[in-house]
Amino acid sequence: MDNLIELLSNGKFLEATVQTLTYVVIAMGLGGALGLVLGVLLTVTRQGGVLQSRGVYVVLNFLVNFFRPIPFVILIAAIQPLARVVVGTGIGDRALIFVLTFAATFGIARLVEQNLLTVPPGVIEASRAMGAGPLRTILTVLIPEGLGPVVLGYTFAFIAVVDMTAMAGVIGGGGLGNLALQYGYRQFNPWVTWAAVLLIIVIVQLVQLLGNVIARRLLRR
Hints:
- The structure is a single chain.
- The protein is mainly α.
- The protein has one domain (17-175): MetI-like fold (Orthogonal Bundle).
- Helices cover 79% and strands 0% of the residues.
- Helix 2 (12-45) packs antiparallel against helix 3, helix 7 packs antiparallel against helix 8 and helix 10 (176-185) runs antiparallel to helix 11 (190-219).
- The chain starts with a helix and ends with a helix.
- 38% of the residues are buried.
């Protein structure tokens, strides 16, 4: 208990919380944008899509299926050489954010595709029948109509990325997960471990609540 009080008083818990939120927000911002583009492409290039292209779909589908199932701790090691090329280092915060973004991109792509496929084909066909081109159909019909489920998908992805940050210590990152492991688990201090866990739960609950509210309003339009 004394160790927990010390960590609270010297600001390490606040610092770890800020680090976790920073990792997740940047990864979701970059990975969310890239995943949205990739997910839309998967949706519109599949058979029957507004930009049907078997070759493009097969390649994109293969990439998503290849990278998405890789456990995050293994992915960290596997793409460390790529991280060095892109962000200049294979360890530390920049490398961690790169790997988080990489993982989020492919995970979100599949979520976006699955949720956009719930849009009734009749709505898209009606848009095409009224003379809308493929790009206009995508931007004004497909994405807006699937936005509610997509928001819930992003909420799920946000929580998954929070879980991934627990592995930050593997490559010298920080955050609540690393704090729980370093000062809680390794020092046999359950007070610190559970304090970090409860703080993560609070963050997740707030994000889930916000996602539910936004999705509910979008679905009621």
